[in-house]
Write a structure and sequence with these properties.
With 430 residues, the protein is α/β, with parallel strands linked by helices. It folds into three domains: 167 residues, Rossmann fold (3-Layer(aba) Sandwich); 167 residues, Nitrogenase molybdenum iron protein domain (Rossmann fold), CATH 3.40.50.1980; 32 residues, no CATH class. The protein is built from 17 helices and 14 strands. A six-stranded parallel beta sheet has the order 1-11-10-9-12-13, sandwiched between helices. A five-stranded parallel beta sheet has the order 6-5-4-7-8, with helices on both faces. It is globular.
Length: 430
């Protein structure tokens, strides 16, 4: 890990670190992903099965792409009671949290006019769940439940298969969350199938969910032909700590993020040299015990940083400029510091609110803006699965009252037909 700021300056080193992460989304990957999408648009299911064999090592026919109900039934028989109990607790917490986000249509009526806004669910969405050798039932819940709360009629899940098919935990999570269709396909080819459709996979209106760089770039390229939630990059955590923080907790949270991906970014920002030294020692000790030690070590070497600042105000300013996906406030009075936070995907307050709590069970969504986009973006939520339609109704008398003002504005914009569209309705009766 890089130690930054001991010389009294950190801006140049931090800028270099952040620029390296931004460059991840560029270069050779973009052209490769575009070729995959073009091939799926041209050859449909044939391209899907070919890419699934090429990238996932699994041979499928088009008829094998969709998961049958019998497989889901068998999946329930393969998972433990403890898993099912924990999954349902998480499901219920996520459902309760997201139910509070649901907006209602509204109407405002006065004499001769009516204005309003209709809230309508999307007809269909596709959720991407990372897979292959990975198993992420939590991602199923976080993506599908807000769509279900919104009232989406058709929820489609795609996930890459491994040689043992899809993990039973993922299939059970899909059933518990109300997913309607499940397909064994991932990567950029899966995103293309959701966006444009094939014989086996009818297209959807919006694509959501996290994935690797191929998935992220594919979502960027299909946006406009289909909606997307966000173009998420590698995961990240930034922890602000004072000299009273527990270094073992900080190290554990940094490693929890680092084990996700070699491109994950883990940062500590503190005003205490003592904490930096203690966290560095703790990270070294805990790292040796991790099953995913290689991935975590690479993440820390390339994108890990321990940053010394002058005070907590400076720490918050730096965090706001980085706008991290996860922000931990491991300070004596986290609520007092919360008011200084403007840009973060999710905030974890105090010693006993680890990021893993938010990943699995607390209720708020774990699909969060990354790469600094928390400056303007929000976590995945119910609002991503609805659309808003404005309503306008005026009587002739009410239109006549405002026709002169409309004419003035239309003239200012040089749009005479706009003015006439009002005038023709307000002429004196013959």
């Amino acid at each position: 890990m890089k130690i930054i700021g001991l010389d009294g300056s950190y801006s140049e080193s931090m800028e270099e670190l952040l620029n390296n992460r931004r460059r991840i989304m560029q270069g050779e990957y973009l052209d490769r992903v575009k070729r995959i999408i073009d091939r799926v648009r041209e050859d449909g299911d044939e391209a899907l099965t070919e890419f699934t064999h090429m990238y996932d090592g699994v041979r499928l026919s088009p008829g094998d792409l969709q998961v049958a109900p019998e497989e889901i039934k068998r999946a329930y028989e393969m998972v433990s009671e403890d898993f099912l109990r924990a999954l349902r607790i998480a499901r219920d917490n996520i459902l309760k949290f997201h139910s509070r986000q649901l907006e209602r249509s509204w109407f405002e009526q006065e004499s001769g006019l009516l204005l309003g806004q209709m809230i309508s669910p999307l007809d269909s969405v596709g959720i991407y769940v990372p897979g292959g050798t990975a198993c992420y039932p939590s991602s199923v819940l976080m993506n599908a439940i807000p769509a279900k709360v919104a009232g989406v009629k058709r929820i489609v899940m795609i996930t890459p298969p491994d040689k043992e098919s899809i993990p039973p935990e993922v299939l059970v999570a899909a059933a518990e969350a109300g997913v309607d269709e499940i397909y064994r396909v991932g990567g950029a080819q899966g995103i293309a199938a959701l966006a444009y459709g094939t014989n086996a996979i009818p297209k959807v209106d919006k694509v959501v969910g996290p994935g690797n760089i191929y998935v992220a770039l594919a979502k960027r390229l299909v946006f406009g032909d289909v909606g997307v939630d966000m173009v998420a990059g590698p995961s990240e955590v930034l922890i602000i700590a004072d000299d009273g923080a527990n270094p073992a907790f900080i190290a554990a949270d940094m490693l929890a993020q680092a084990e996700h991906d070699a491109m994950a970014c883990c940062m500590l920002v503190t005003d205490s040299e003592k904490i930096i030294a203690e966290v560095e020692a703790e990270v070294r000790m805990q790292l040796e015990k991790l099953p995913r030690e290689g991935t975590a070590r690479q993440s820390l070497e390339d994108y890990g940083a321990l940053v010394l600042v002058g005070d907590m105000q400076e720490a918050c300013e730096l965090a706001n400029s980085i706008a991290p996906e996860h922000l931990g406030l491991m300070v004596r009075e986290p609520l007092a510091l919360l008011g200084k936070v403007r840009n973060a995907g999710a905030v974890f307050l105090g010693d006993y609110s680890p990021e893993a709590l938010g990943d699995y069970l607390a209720g708020p969504n774990h699909v969060l803006p990354t790469g600094g986009t928390a400056r303007f973006a929000s976590p995945l939520g119910v609002e991503q699965f609805v659309k808003k339609t404005g309503l306008v109704y005026y009587t002739r008398d009410e239109l006549k009252k405002v026709s002169g003002d409309i004419a003035v504005l239309a003239e200012a914009e040089g749009l005479c037909a706009h003015r006439r569209a009002v005038e023709v309705r307000c002429r004196k009766d013959d």
